[in-house]
Amino acid sequence: MTYPAWTPASRPGIIPLHPLTFGTILGRSFAALRQNPRVLLGFAMGVQVIAYTALFVVVGLVAWSTFSRLDTLREGTDEFDAVLTGSIVLTAGAAFVLSLALGALSAIVQGIVVRDVSHAALAEKLPLRELWRRFRPVAWRLIGYSFLLVLVVLLIVAAVAAGVFAIGTAALPIAIGMTVFLVLGSFPLYFWLSTKLLLVPSAIVLEGATIRQAIARSWRLTRGRFWAALGVIVIISVVFSALGQVVNLPFSFLTSGLTTIITPTGDPDAQAWIAIIIAGVAAQALLLVVQSVALVVQSTAAALVYIDCRMRHEGLDLDLLQYVERRDAGAPDLADPYTVGIGRVLAPRPPMPVGYPMAGAASAAQGYPPPSPGYAMPGPGYPMPGPGYPQGAPYPQPTAAGPVPGYAPTAPPPASPASYPPPTGPAYAPAEASVSPAPPAPAPQPAAPTSWTAPGAPDSGDPESPWR
Fold first, then answer.
1. Around Cβ 183, how many Cβ atoms within 10 Å?
2. C-alpha of 452 from chain center
């Protein structure tokens, strides 16, 4: 017989391979930055810096080239108003197009982060080139999903704005009240939809799902874990919003102080503009770093929530454990564990017997000795031993004399105890033979009357009796 070779314990990943708690998801979302910083920080921050720099530069050039024409026109004329309107439209259009491009780059960063986290959970660290090779087939699908979200939001905002404007032309107070109500109501709607759609990027990247399938998957997987997912996202958003304010506050004071010191009369010269621009650029650079880290942490949290939801709904932890064990044992050509059990429905666990204490710690807490391996739960009428029952003694068996003293059965014992499987184990040795209860003894009958009398009695009939 050939025994398998010894293999060392599997390398731990960034998360334990079992359903995660709220604190684990939140803490590991930040701790994952240390797993592969070259990808999670270097790549993400580089892409974000390039994107935001291009956005500021291009929008600034468009704004400068269009609004500079107003210096040659007289204010208040029709030509001035036309140039002003055109400048605003061109600048807003350039900012919108570049924002879409920035959203596409953010989607790419999110996809790379999700793919890296999925491997980090298995203690695997892949280079950026390999991560991009695995993400590239679904990259356009994820970008299309981000564009679809922007389009839907714009259509909803435009429809609501048009409706409020139409109402405002007839009744301005009603339009103002509706605007306040819609603004306040949009916050819970936004958080609800963003949480229900939180797992769409992970489903697209790790499962190769279409946009429609990914939306349905995210909607179903978040059932039962909605509040945990919402809490993680809200806490991360609040933390980085506060951090952004902390970073921006000193530069705001610095810019205000430089403006007051350099231009006390309120007429800034070239030197003052340079100082103000430098302070503003430095503040935006630090904010850009904070936003880049926030994008990575939020993407990591979304990937961990996805893994946790699949563990709970589809038993993904079993697939991951099997993959890790086979990988560390040297098995080649392993299938992607994230595509093995998609849509699996776990069988419900059998209910615990009612009226019997659980084995292990609960039994020990109540004074019951721990059952030995292979011990079967006795059937109705055979209660568990009470507190103080000596370990190693045989399990009490019913006898003809009735129940064992000290153990009150919950129901009368059956006619044949052999119909239940006997307990096994050294602590509960079965009886040598089952004793059937004896039939009840017949009731005592009263003694029949007798006609015997003592010899010589008057009524004895003896001829020699002296009473005759």
1. 10
2. 98
Report whether 371 contacts 359 (CB < 8 A). Answer: yes
At position 206, the amino acid (one-letter code) is L
Q: What is the mean pLDDT of the chain?
A: 75
Single-letter amino acid, residue 447: A
Q: What count of other Cβ atoms lies within 10 Å of the Cβ of residue 287?
A: 17
In which element (H, E) is residue 220 found?
Answer: helix 211-221
Distance of alpha carbon 461 from alpha carbon 297, whole angstroms: 123
CA distance 270 to 261: 14
- Which residue in this structure is represented by tokens 């769409």? 200
List all residues 6 or more positions away from 258 whose beta carbon is below 8 Å from its beta carbon: 272, 275, 276, 279
Tokens of 98: 């570049």
Q: Give me the half-sphere count of Cα atoms (radius 13 Å) on the Cβ side of residue 311.
A: 19
pLDDT tens for 169-205 read: 777 788 888 888 888 888 888 899 999 999 999 999 9
Q: Which helix (H) or strand (E) holds 409?
A: none
From the list 140, 126, 127, 149, the residue with the least C-alpha distance to 205 is: 140
| Residue 345 CB contacts under 8 Å (≥ 6 apart), including other chains | 314
Give the residue among 399, 400, 370, 396 at the shortest CA–CA distance from 383: 396
Kindly indicate the confidence band of residue 393, based on its pLDDT and cuts at 50, 70 and 90.
very low
Q: Distance (Å, rounded) from C-alpha 234 to C-alpha 189? A: 14
Name 356's Cβ contacts closer than 8 Å, sequence gap at least 6: 377, 384
Residue 31 in contact with residue 63, Cβ under 8 Å? no
CA distance 292 to 295: 5
Rg (CA), the chain: 41
CA distance 119 to 96: 35
Helix and strand tally (H, E) in the chain?
Answer: 13, 0
Beta bridge partners of 399: 402
The amino acid sitting at 224 is: G
Closest to 8 in 3D by CA, of 329, 421, 402:
329
Distance in angstroms (rounded) separating the CA atoms of residues 398 and 271: 103
- Structure tokens of 206? 């790790």
The region of weakest confidence among 234-238, 358-362, 402-406 is: 358-362
Residue 234, φ and ψ in degrees, nearest 5: -65, -45
For the chain, percent of residues with pLDDT exceeding 90: 20
Residue 107 half-sphere exposure toward CB, CA atoms < 13 A: 24
Asked whether 29 and 232 are in contact (CB, 8 A), the reply is yes
